[in-house]
């Protein structure tokens, strides 16, 4: 702002003749000619927004830049999570990834001036445009291109949801390729058209925006048309959901009046097929909404921001048009400033008629800055934070080798081969202990399972005579002599073979004698074998109890 009175123009105006049109956005100059006061063409100093808003408004606009930094950090964190973490933790989808990247592009436009704080003005009365300032070109390109990308991917996401719910079509590879082609090519095309035919310049805030000349035809009109298509598609989808829900509630149900008179028959209902169809459709819709409710909310929020942003800036363009009403308001404000010796604070109520309301302008920039945070809250999941903790822990923690049964001798070469045995790696014995015995060593056994665990054949197990199993085997060999606690029948002869199957007392007649034993020849002692089962005379009752001689002792244990 100028600090002294100019020789030809009253304070705070500056003469236009001293600043020829050499660069910058000369169409954005705020110049006025008042022949009645014999004042030549005088222009308002750049940036002109400082004269229409309070001094605190500039600080508020600058604060939104740091909100954009937080939004950029959220988008970068989410994209990095999509790239590094497993899909089970992020549930990533190309529609979510591309939408998050589009939001990041739009957020970048508001932080570029923060990295390179360049003056917004080409000279004292002319603001920079994309040809005179690299900051302006980059911030404007990111804003227009990022806004177009956001609108396109919002539309593609809305279309995908519409196909799944209304048409029961799951988008596949063709939809993926088509969305990638349209989602990035259309923003590039319209960005080139907007920059070449309209251009960007410093008009409001710390970033460059599209100029008012042909801005509706090249940028605002097509983008609002695409946003309207998204709103219509989303509205049709919600309308279909409500129709299915209401139909499932109010459709005719089977009633007892439809009985045919036979008590054993089921009631008939002509609308049963339609009822089942509506119920199944409602269940399918619920599943889709449960999976994509986050995407639905982010679509609604971004569409609301885009429409609000477009409406406010179109209103701002309307205030900058050179119309009779705007000229009359400008002259009224100029006389107010001149009468108060350039004190803008005395004329803020009149200035509010020339520009967008201060609260409205700040809310637009703040909502645009908050889109990155919304993207993290709605597109990201809480499971990504434990997944990051696990990933960082695995990076700084050495992985332990898997527990296996391996040969103890294969892992440790001992000087004393007698002390070698195979054990689990977890149970290492103290070197001071002596060889294991049956009383001081316990065998480690796995817990019983329904299916036996597969045996690991990769490690060799060698036989060692000093192991516990070998000692048990040796002790068993020493006590191999086994004495039965039962005595044989006291017949006075050694029992060497089984008695013959056939004999003189065989009840089924005579036949060839067969023996069960090692020898086919009967022993002399058993030529006359005794059978405890004696035949009774014909016609007498049969006693089934066996009959033995009195001197025989049977099965007497020690």
UniProtKB/TrEMBL annotation:
| Membrane-spanning segments | 66-87, 94-112, 132-155, 175-199, 219-241, 293-316, 359-380
Please name the InterPro entries in this protein's record.
GPCR_2-like_7TM, GPCR_2_secretin-like, GPCR_GPR1/git3-like
Basic and acidic residues: compositionally biased ranges: 548-558
The record describes its membrane topology as: Multi-pass membrane protein
Q: Which residues belong to any copy of the G-protein coupled receptors family 2 profile domain?
A: 57-383
Q: Does the keyword Cytoplasm apply?
A: no
- Molecular function (Gene Ontology), one example: G protein-coupled receptor activity
Q: Can you name this protein? A: Similar to Frizzled and smoothened-like protein O acc. no. Q1ZXI9
Question: Lineage from the top down?
Answer: Eukaryota, Fungi, Dikarya, Ascomycota, Pezizomycotina
